[in-house]
Automatic annotation (TrEMBL):
Residues 8-44 form the Insertion element IS150 protein InsJ-like helix-turn-helix domain. This is Insertion element IS150 protein InsJ-like helix-turn-helix domain-containing protein. SUPFAM superfamilies: Homeodomain-like. The lineage of its organism: Bacteria, Candidatus Wolfeibacteriota. InterPro entries: Homeodomain-like_sf, InsJ-like_HTH. It holds the Pfam family HTH_28.
Length: 204
């Protein structure tokens, strides 16, 4: 049977080593959050910052890898940050709860994904994509092409959206269709929007 000291050590371990929130620990021990807070304070356990708490909730409760903004950008990465921000200003979704960027140019798609990984510090395994194609496109061939280009496996492709149009028309104009890349994170979306606002101010 666990003693009170054993439980206190377990509470501290879950909070410090496992990244559990106080609410998650309280649920596990069937007690109030204030009780967990009391024992953490009594044992001089340092509280997390708000950002650390949010990231830990993502990884423990929602099983999502958090993103970590790169604060030590090289000159090349600074240029990538500007390019990615400008791309999102032009082609990105400004509302909702996710970062969404769509384009038919494979190089632009790759550049934006590199921006998310190198500048925003996302985990690539949380990226999902949606193909917008037309009836005369070869869906399976395009899925294989975009998977090779983005290094995103096909099991993270949503069901393709097929636009009804004249056969033979859109294939010549857009041989690869359009790919929409999405990363579900409202916090990152707000950060990108703030970078866009900063660009607007700098260009005035």
């Amino acid at each position: 049977m666990k003693t009170l000291k054993d439980e206190q050590r377990e509470i501290a371990r879950l909070y410090m080593d496992e990244g559990y929130s106080m609410m998650q620990i309280a649920q596990q021990f069937k007690c109030s959050v204030s009780t967990i807070r009391y024992w953490l304070d009594k044992n001089n356990v340092k509280r997390r910052s708000i950002n650390e708490a949010i990231n830990n909730i993502y990884s423990t409760k929602f099983n999502k890898d958090p993103f970590y903004l790169n604060k030590n950008l090289s000159k090349k990465d600074e240029e990538l940050k500007i390019a990615g921000t400008m791309l999102y200003w032009g082609e990105g979704a400004k509302t909702g709860n996710a970062v969404k960027f769509a384009n038919s140019d494979p190089e632009m798609i790759v550049l934006f994904i590199n921006f998310l990984i190198k500048v925003c510090g996302i985990s690539q395994n949380r990226l999902k994509v949606l193909m917008h194609i037309y009836p005369d496109h070869d869906e399976e061939a395009l899925k294989a092409f975009w998977s090779r280009t983005t290094h995103i496996p096909t099991d993270r492709f949503y069901k393709s959206h097929v636009h009804i149009g004249k056969i033979g028309t859109y294939k010549r104009k857009s041989p690869y269709g359009t790919l929409a890349v999405s990363y579900s994170d409202k916090k990152l979306l707000n950060i990108l929007l703030s970078w866009i606002d900063q660009c607007k101010q700098d260009l005035q």
